[in-house]
């Protein structure tokens, strides 16, 4: 891969991003590398000075390592002797140049993108499973958990971010194409739009699953309006759009889709019982037939002609329980239909999907059933606890939960509210405290809990909290270990401290109790 200085200048001008340039070398000079981290520069590289923690010394280091051109929002003396491209917006410039450097790999992929406060990972896994049935070993995945860029085990790795920086995103796409991938299923976070990680990228199908307040705080979105605005960007960058008609703020969501997409290419879905406020036509209904703690079965019914034309109606079985997962599965099936896969092929693909840290459960003799689930805000936790309340007929529910430091502060009152609505006991514990004091975070959650309804214990050691919750739980009770899912670490003061995962700890506690 390579990009010439001349091409960089033309692209930046075309997108009205170039403020000025200082050229030291031949315009035809090629750069064979692209990087935003000085530690990853080797040889003639196009280097981006970006980020809240960027230091000019990084540019010196990049230059020492061979970088020949830098892109920044202002000139740096450390870049003297290099070509300088001064731009209006560094992250937009980075996305435009990264796509060009990797030779626009998105053009060789059918790209399906999911956004929503909850259900992105689940829907992405469902969609990939279906597509893999139709196109074995040809479907890439960029998710919060895993990144898959090829068919071999060494082409699958853990993700750092839900949606990576543009340079990493387009590099992964290029690798996927070179490895023979024809389809890509990806999650798009609101941060990705806020930080221009996907600037200029168009998806073949874009999904809007739902939106509830989250990711609002000093390091994320300043307010809900900003969060919604960024999430809506996915719709105006998608050729076809699928919307959950039951989402909050439906009118704004639908209006955003309509600005760039003709109604023929907008698909709406909802559960059988849902009554829309206006007269928008629901294209698909999903009708729950069996909902239990072991499996889910639902009927997908096309309502409009354009829905029927996708040929994905029928009965679907899911191993991944939870009524909300029927909604996620519906989205994924419609996506597969829009990718040309028919229902008969889709059905077996979705049935056996399980996802690390989502609705994993274990029966502990004498202590009820323990659930490990990634529910980590008010909306997710409410969906989870409501489902368990109905399925277990109003059991005593003991919830182990903590809230992360440095982000998502709105989750703390959210947890307090949902615990007050559903929990018998709350074990407030540690979850990625970052640079905050976990005791302070627990106290903030505790402050909002209605103590007349919920017994609260603060047990900061997560293993001890899980042990206490299971040990004190009765045979008909339900224990919920929430919000961490399958994370193998605790983020503590900038360090990913190893954590065996919640389910491993649950199994160890169960074994200890069985041995007694
Ligand atoms: C707020 C935010 O989005 N921050 C991201 C951003 O940080 P930044 O641009 O400020 O960069 P930085 O880490 O401060 O470092 C400054 C620059 O110096 C460079 N550097 C650094 C050291 C060195 O020796 N040399 C060098 O060149 C770095 O490569 C970087 O470009 O770029 C970094 C990578 O360059 C990301 O790791 C970092 O994500 C942080 C860790 C993060 O947690 N982000 C979360 C909020 C996030 O984006 N989450 C969403 C999911 C949310 C949802 O579910 O909706 C996601 O998509 O994952
Ligand atoms: N459609 C949904 N509505 C409400 N809650 C849901 C829905 N889907 C999943 N959940 C809950 O949210 C949790 C996280 O689900 P998932 O990982 O699919 O979401 P996500 O959008 O990828 O989350 P994040 O962006 O925070 O990583 C699940 O473990 C479940 O408890």
TrEMBL record:
Q: Which cofactor does it need?
A: Mg(2+)
Query: Annotated Gene Ontology MF terms?
Result: UDP-N-acetylmuramoylalanyl-D-glutamate-2,6-diaminopimelate ligase activity
What keywords appear on the UniProt entry? Answer: ATP-binding, Cell cycle, Cell division, Cell shape, Cell wall biogenesis/degradation, Cytoplasm, Ligase, Magnesium, Nucleotide-binding, Peptidoglycan synthesis
Q: In what way is this protein post-translationally modified?
A: Carboxylation is probably crucial for Mg(2+) binding and, consequently, for the gamma-phosphate positioning of ATP.
Location(s) in or outside the cell: Cytoplasm
What EC designation does it have?
6.3.2.-
Q: Where is the Mur ligase central domain?
A: 115-334
InterPro entries recorded for this chain?
Answer: Mur-like_cat_sf, Mur_ligase_C, Mur_ligase_C_dom_sf, Mur_ligase_cen, MurE/MurF_N, UDP-N-AcMur-Glu-dNH2Pim_ligase
Residues recorded as binding UDP-N-acetyl-alpha-D-muramoyl-L-alanyl-D-glutamate, renumbered to this chain, are: 38, 162-163, 189, 197
Q: Where, per the database record, does this protein carry N6-carboxylysine? A: 231
The Mur ligase C-terminal domain covers: 357-485
Residues that bind ATP, according to the entry? 116-122
Q: Which pathway does it take part in?
A: Cell wall biogenesis; peptidoglycan biosynthesis
- Described function: Catalyzes the addition of an amino acid to the nucleotide precursor UDP-N-acetylmuramoyl-L-alanyl-D-glutamate (UMAG) in the biosynthesis of bacterial cell-wall peptidoglycan.
Family (UniProt): Belongs to the MurCDEF family. MurE subfamily.
Tell me what this protein is called: UDP-N-acetylmuramyl-tripeptide synthetase
Query: Which organism is the protein's source?
Result: Lacticaseibacillus jixianensis
- What is the gene name? murE
